[in-house]
Amino acid sequence: MNNPIVDESLLDLAHRRSVEFLRALPERHVGPRAARQELIDAWGAPLSEDGEDPAAVLDSMASQADRAMTGSAAGRYFGFVIGGSLPVAVAADWLTSAWDQNCGTFSTSPGDSVAEEISAGWLLDLLGLPKTASAGFVTGGQTANFTCLAAARHWVLRNAGWNVEEEGLQGAPRVNVVLSAEAHITVYFALRLLGLGNANVHKVDTDEQGRMRADKLAELLPHLSGPTIISSQVGNVNTGSIDPVRELARIAHEHEAWLHVDGAFGLWGMASRDRRPLLEGVQDADSWATDAHKWLNVPYDCGVAIVRHSAAHRAAMTLTASYLEQTSGAERDPFDWTPEFSRRARGFTVYAALRTLGRRGVEELVDRCCARARQMASLLARDPRARVLNDVVLNQALVRFKDDDDATRETVVRAQRDGTCWMSGTTWHDMAAMRISVSNWSTSEKDVERSAAAILRSIP
Ligand SMILES: *Cc1c(COP(=O)(O)O)cnc(C)c1O
Fold first, then answer.
1. What's the 301 CA to ligand 1 centre distance in angstroms?
2. Collapsing DSSP states into helix, strand and coil, what is residue 84?
């Protein structure tokens, strides 16, 4: 019988083109290449009246992939904190597209609801967080920060006798927001969306590695009265350093403040017995934002918002309407825990990745990336022209060349152009630096050796 919804030849074409792309990836130029005009010339005709042959459309897109796509999915991309994709996660993502589930409610997708429920339990266990915490699968770290801080806003205002979901912020008690001076920009964005703004944020000084200073927080809090939200981080975006969360949580809770942890990548350190001592006390916080698309290496987009006080999490995110079927209670309606209503079934890739890796596999992934970051730092540091600026405690290394801003920036540009590897530049404590993040499951020792050699030959 003719079934118009399956077109095997198109799926085969996508399969073939994907394999071709991934095969070439480890040896191709790593960084971005295509200029805007080049892609517009290739792809941008006036929209046709009658459409085009779908195989021709896919072929035209895929024919540019080599130049249009950065090589971030392979092992010598060290830019930002990007991460690749485990093969099983790519495959699970294809299935997710074929299944095309709207996973807002249990009734629209029992499969995703349960995959999320199981994955959330596994994650809490792996990351050493309270078993009763709730988790929402969101688009990424930014939305995870937003979701957690929305739960925080609910909780601190409810404790002050104010229902922010009903009344909004008009006439509400003032909420104090305290951030590390090196908080990620996405925390600021979340505060904007939450109506808390950026101008009145209290910034707490950091130490030489970029960690929030607990003594400075302890000094500040007695001067603040009323509802207070504090946001710390594990995994400073430059150095990978980890705030002293045990101490911060103790101080926060003495003042009945909410302590959030932005752990977009660093929270994964909890999955490693070796790294866990660095994150001591992380489980004492009230909420945690992390990414699966970074260090767990699932395809974009996937982050996780985890909240100790699940009632606050749910109150901040839930919605009801007469046309929605409410579940009987045990079933999870994913939209209770995320800002989105309809969305992609993000549970499947996380489920497939965690189940395939197991506890040891996740630990090895984390340990391997940390070991490669240390390897890179030590290979570079052997050259007298290079200086590693941070303690390489996780997967991030910051390197400066000839102790000079211009020489460092020039090294970054030349290394990017060389194409063996790719990393970005940054400014750290008023110094230009090259920022190296090892977040890809496939990065090998050999990849690091080749990359270090390419970086060293790029020093002007
Ligand atoms: C990447 C990152 C974010 C933002 O996460 P997205 O997934 O890009 O939205 C937030 N905080 C830190 C520390 C990060 O590294």
1. 12
2. coil
pTM > 0.90: yes
Query: Does the beta carbon of 262 lie inside 6 Å of ligand 1?
Result: yes
70 lies in the same domain as 98 = no
Nearest CA to ligand 1 atom 4: 141
Taking the centre of ligand 1 as the mean of its atom positions, its distance from the CA of residue 293, in whole angstroms, is 10
Average pLDDT per run of 10 along the chain, which is 460 residues long? 90 97 96 95 95 97 95 96 97 98 94 98 98 98 98 97 95 97 97 96 98 98 97 97 98 98 98 98 98 98 97 91 64 94 96 98 98 98 98 98 98 98 97 98 98 98
What is the per-residue pLDDT for 2?
A: 84
Q: Is 389 in the pocket of ligand 1 (CB under 6 A)?
A: no
Helix, strand, or coil here: 219? helix
Q: How far apart (Å, rounded) are the C-alpha atoms in residues 143 and 190? A: 7
CB burial class (10 A; 0-12, 13-18, 19+) of residue 171? exposed
**Domain limit, last residue, from 338, 353, 368:** 353
Q: Is the peptide bond before 301 cis (omega within 30 degrees of 0)?
A: yes
Q: Can you tell me the distance from the alpha carbon of 60 to that of 48, in angstroms, rounded to the nearest whole number?
A: 15
Residue where a domain terminates, one of 353, 371, 392: 353
Four-residue CA torsion sign, 65, 66, 72, 78: negative
Q: Which atom of ligand 1 is nearest to the CA of 301?
A: 7
